[in-house]
Amino acid sequence: MFKEGGETEEVGQSKEIQNFEDLRRVRLADEGFIVITDANRPAIIHKVNAKCITMDKFNSKVSINDRKQGSYYWADSVATAAREFGAKRCKACKPELRLVPPSTLDG
Ligand SMILES: [Zn+2]
């Protein structure tokens, strides 16, 4: 599991991805999921290394628009992302539902 310091596995973890270095680090770790929030649409959960997450989109949202239209977050699980951001799973990269009761995300 992806653990640092005194973090526990029981509590869901998430953090904002604020720059390219953060994004590079989470993708290298290959753990957890990326949540993209949007001012006009529901948040979407993506696999951390999904092709639908591109540097171009990240750059335009985080750098150019200064996160006014939405942000990128890392979450340790689909459950955390759903709970904290009300996020839906991406239909393109289909992040897995591991350890999550199906009813958590539907509806
Ligand atoms: Zn995706």
Structure notes:
With 107 residues, the protein is an alpha+beta fold. The protein has one domain (14-94). It is 26% helix and 17% strand. The chain has helices at 20-29, 55-64, 78-85; strands spanning 14-17, 33-36, 44-47, 72-75, 88-89. A 5-stranded mixed sheet has the order 1-4-2-3-5, with helices on both faces. Strand 2 (33-36) and strand 3 (44-47) form a beta hairpin. Bound molecules: zinc ion. Residues 46, 50, 52, 90, 92-93 line the site of zinc ion.
Salient structural properties:
single chain, 107 residues, alpha+beta, five-stranded mixed beta sheet, 26% helix, binds zinc ion
Series of secondary-structure elements, N-terminal to C-terminal: EHEEHEHE
Biggest sheet strand order reads: 1-4-2-3-5
Radius of gyration: 13 Å
Structural class determined from secondary elements: alpha+beta
* Overall mean pLDDT: 86
Gap between N and C termini: 29 Å
Please mark out the parts with pLDDT under 50 across 5 or more consecutive residues, or reply none: none
Binned strand content = 15-25%
Number of separate helices:
3
Large-scale geometry = globular
Outline the biggest β-sheet: 5 strands, mixed
Tally of individual domains? 1
Into which percent range does the helicity of residues fall?
25-40%
What binds here, in terms of ligands, is:
zinc ion
**Secondary structure: number of strands:** 5
